[in-house]
Amino acid sequence: MLYMHVVRSRYAHARIRSIDVNKAYKHGARAVYTYDDIDNVEIDLEPAEGANLVHQRVLATGKTRYVGEPVAVVVSDSLTNCLDAAEQVEVVYDPLPAVLDPFKAMDPGSPLVHEEIGTNVYFTWSKQVGNVEESFSKADVIVQTQMWIQRVAPSPMEPRCTVANYNPSNNSFTLYASSQNPHRLRSFVAKKLGVSENAVRVIAPDVGGGFGSKLSIYPEDILAPMLSKKLQKPIAWVETRMENFYATAHGRDMHGKIELALSRQGKIKGLKAEITADIGAYPYGFAKAMPLTACRMITGCYKINNASVKAVGVFTNKTPIAPYRGAGRPEAAYFIERAVEKAAARLGIDPADIRRINFIKPDEFPYDNGLGMVYDTGDYGKALDRLLTISNYKHLREKQTELRQKGVLVGIGLSTYVEVSNFLPQPAYVRIERDGSLFIYSGTSPHGQGGETAFAQIASDTLGIPLDKITVAHSDTSLGPPGNGTAGSWTLASGGNAVLAACRRIREKMMRIAAHMLECRIEDLEFVDGVFRVRDDSGRRLSVEHIARAAYDINGLPEDVEPGLEAVTHYVPELTFPFGAHLAIVEVDAETGQVFLRKVVMVNDCGEVVNPMLVDGQVVGGAAQAIGQALFESLEYDANGTLLTASFADYLIPTAAEMPDILTDRTVTPAPNPLGAKGVGEASTIGLAQAVVNAVEDALGRSVEKTPLTPYMVWSILHAFEK
Amino acid sequence: MATSRVVREFSFKLNGREVKVRAPPAYTLLDTLRYIIRLTGTKDGCSSGDCGACTVLLDGKAVHSCLTLMAQVQGREVVTVEGVDPIIPQAYAQEGAVQCGYCTPGLVMATAALLKANPKPSDEDIREALRGNLCRCTGYVKIIRAVKMAAGV
């Protein structure tokens, strides 16, 4: 086994003048490669239509565009030797001015991240519905807001890693990868290495978290198998935590300028939204798709007939942006929910009431928001009602008034969100074995969400096979049809529906076999508690095990039935629209600016629930990330584009000590799919951050534009008015 | 320069048994556990003592094995997740306090250290004791419940 370590650009923007690898060889390197030593293939970037397409190669050629971009790769017989040797690779850079602000990047004189396109703009997009100018000219009140949703680091506890093993006897590869979508990784690796997909097997064993950052295909994913073939040895690559901070994709980083035109009673007559997305140096997957999703979901839970949205994606000399838990929907919900809460404050209307006035009504679904989204089902009033009931809202406001009279800066913030999920199809392969036990394969790749348990429950429910006789497998590309991994809250809503469909197909076949064996018609049979029995003559019955045995015995089967008891389905989902209502209570220390998040109450509607414990895990886990976004997490750059916060000592993700009291509940508004499931993985990162920020605004009585709300930031806002 | 070919011998007690290993002097306890002894339960989340994923017990106290040199382990007693009282990981599993599982061994060991020093901890005690262990998946609520279950409070 050999180890691989990547030499990375120390500059945000620089030309590579020279690379000297000789010293590295003297310090333990077995091999060192730069851009002209390898087949320096292109990384497949987002194939966005109507965008300015750019290129990235596995190793930087001529120029580097972000701190962390791979420049050379060192291979050695131990990780320690790799790190030592990598330090000896001498790269001489000619630094260029770094582009770090997407607005400045659009100025005519700005340095260009990609000279060949003549601009730093990746794409622009706009859409309108209704008559926006009229709605604004007729409005009683116009509320204008500006907000940044800061760049964050997904920070899974397991950094990225890969072990690639080349098999020369048949020119094939086995890759162990920390990936959220092994089949997609397989396709890319096969294509880039010039072999057929069947020659690459990707196994993603227990993956230590991803949150979207392990969906992208990175240079290292190509380098490891490529070098394994070149050197005819297995190659292991393990990312350090610092590398994870600057060489693994970041999330969010959008600026929103949102204007609402309202009547004095609080009815939203029109909306204008301008979203500026900082893409980073290269457009990894969904770099255009995410701001577009944010635009399309900007009307939130509200009936807004006049809306105009504009988005621009801009290149900067920072790490590429890719999906991070929510991928465009947190931004949409954040922008609209913050604007609505500000409007409530401006009009003197309770934030719960202003929402109710504007909600899409339950009988107005399916609801076309005119911007490209047709919401399936929803009952936003019900979720809000439940929230206000379980949080004892009236009493909270009374308590707030009392505390305020004593000078305590206490704030209550709300958020009612709707989001869109269930984007991609999934296969399932299900087989009942000869002994009646069950094998399930899913094209999803759960990595802690517990999808395996939900699938087993669905199968057990449908086929009457006990849980301890069920095996669930996934994330090994040799085990079943290509799937789309796990992301986008689709594991249950898409993967689970695939499992359900496959199980139902098997049950139909079992019915036919049972009818044959019991010498009756299918219509006379019922399936109860794992047993097929004749209605009105329940003594005539067969267990699943009995049928399974028969299914593999050609002598016992009806003529038109093939042996075996298995089914493959490819489930194609419709988009679903989970929603909910969240509330946060904060106290701000006026002297230090510290925000104490006391309590968070979350009501989520993810349709029908298969496993409440798994739902709770996602809701509370996502809440921690939303709290991090609102209060703690910040990727800071200096003027040269060097990332200053590249360790957990500087980049603060919540610990057990930061978590508030959490109360959760649910409403159930089924989605129109067989499971009735909407998905819940991203609910909290979409719904909660703005509730916390709204609460701080409520506490301060002052506007907040940027997150995280660090003590210094809050203190500055409080004291800005005292100058 | 083959730095990792110079080795020293270290003897210590590991999960109740005396062991002798030959490791490069620069190796940390984490390196030795994972790469030499092949006990991969202990995880490397940051290699710099910021995340707690590498937590093990050294003479009963929680330490970052990524920051502990082998010389510091000589003659002492190490307990890893492979040798911890099973009541703790069982409580984690039962309460649904495990998602991706990467932080779990470190948390289980931090829990073991806590319960050794404070068998009936309050919620506050638990949050304080676990604040050195980062988890990105669970949001900690079920973890706190698991600790209470293991403690029987």
Compact overview of the structure:
The complex is a heterodimer of chains A (723) and B (153). Chain A has 723 residues and is an alpha+beta fold. In chain A, 29% of the residues lie in helices and 26% in strands.
Report what the structure shows:
The complex is a heterodimer of chains A (723) and B (153). Chain A has 4 domains: 180 residues, Alpha-Beta Complex (Aldehyde Oxidoreductase, domain 3), CATH 3.90.1170.50; 160 residues, 2-Layer Sandwich (Aldehyde Oxidoreductase, domain 4); 203 residues, Aldehyde oxidase/xanthine dehydrogenase, molybdopterin binding domain (Aldehyde Oxidoreductase, domain 4, 2-Layer Sandwich); 146 residues, Aldehyde oxidase/xanthine dehydrogenase, molybdopterin binding domain (Aldehyde Oxidoreductase, domain 4), CATH 3.30.365. The termini of chain A are far apart. The mean pLDDT of chain A is 96. Chain A is built from 19 helices and 30 strands. Chain A is globular, with a radius of gyration of 28 Å. Chain A has 723 residues and is an alpha+beta fold. The longest helix of chain A has 28 residues. Chain B has 153 residues and is α+β, with helices and mostly antiparallel strands. Chain B folds into 2 domains: 78 residues, Beta-grasp domain (Ubiquitin-like (UB roll)); 68 residues, [2Fe-2S]-binding domain (DNA polymerase, domain 1), CATH 1.10.150.120. Helices cover 35% and strands 16% of the residues of chain B. Chain B is built from 6 helices and 5 strands. Chain B has a 5-stranded mixed sheet with strand order 2-1-5-3-4, with helices on both faces. In chain B, strand 3 and strand 4 form a beta hairpin. The longest helix of chain B is centred in the last third of the chain and has 14 residues. Chain B is elongated, with a radius of gyration of 16 Å. In chain B, 51% of the residues are buried.
